[in-house]
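User: quick one, sequence for these tokens?
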């Protein structure tokens, strides 16, 4: 799965997991809690969605931290790092 497809899957996961958000709200710099309204329950749905839709991705309890849920960019970087994809280039 290429990095743009991964980013689209993450956006789809946010749309699927957080009620009352529009696709236009989901920008790389969007804060997941303050801008998009993610909470602990929707976070769990979101992570499950990612595991189900991104081949080879599993949430690692030893590596995931609260800071990964700051923005779309930080969760995207986390997913890429868990997949061992080069994260030196961000998609904007």
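Assistant:
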């Amino acid at each position: 799965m290429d990095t743009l497809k991964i980013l689209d899957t993450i956006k789809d996961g946010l749309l699927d997991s957080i009620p009352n958000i529009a696709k236009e709200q989901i920008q790389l710099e969007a804060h997941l809690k303050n801008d998009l309204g993610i909470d602990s329950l929707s976070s769990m749905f979101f992570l499950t969605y990612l595991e189900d839709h991104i081949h080879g991705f599993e949430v690692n309890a030893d590596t995931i931290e609260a800071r990964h849920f700051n923005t779309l960019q930080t969760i995207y970087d986390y997913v890429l790092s868990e997949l061992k994809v080069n994260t030196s280039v961000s998609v904007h």
